[in-house]
# Entry
Amino acid sequence: MTAPSPPNLKNPMSLESVRAFFATHAPDLTILETADPTPTVATAALAHGVEPGRIAKTLAFRLGDGRVVLLVARGDARIDNRRFKDRFGRGKMLPAEEVEAITGHPVGGVCPFGLATDLPVFADVSLQAFDEVLPAAGGVHTAVRISPADLVRIVSAGWVDVCQPIG
# Structure
């Protein structure tokens, strides 16, 4: 009888797609893998020894016109509904199953790298408060250290201002 796969191997192709993406677009980046899962901002910040704001969370939205976009924002920020609507129009976060089907990455490992579907990516200006941020890298046990400017460059993202700090 075969033992069940650990959670980070739920979708090993997700991590492999990120590795392939980095091999082409950013070969100097190293994927960090943790022993314990880091599916939330809090668990990722603790595992990597950084403040929650440095965790770059990637959120998927379906806009009113049907398009799906990704938004990368600092971990301790939340969407400002008015600013979001002013920039994108109406939008709704995608359910977990749809996120994984469209991005190829499980919730908790969603990132703008190695996507299963070509999607527009936007980075919130909130990330610019840091010289380095840690987005996931395709799995709930993965992350990468990257400057916000490099993140935007390698995924051809556009800057937007649609978030506000929590608290």
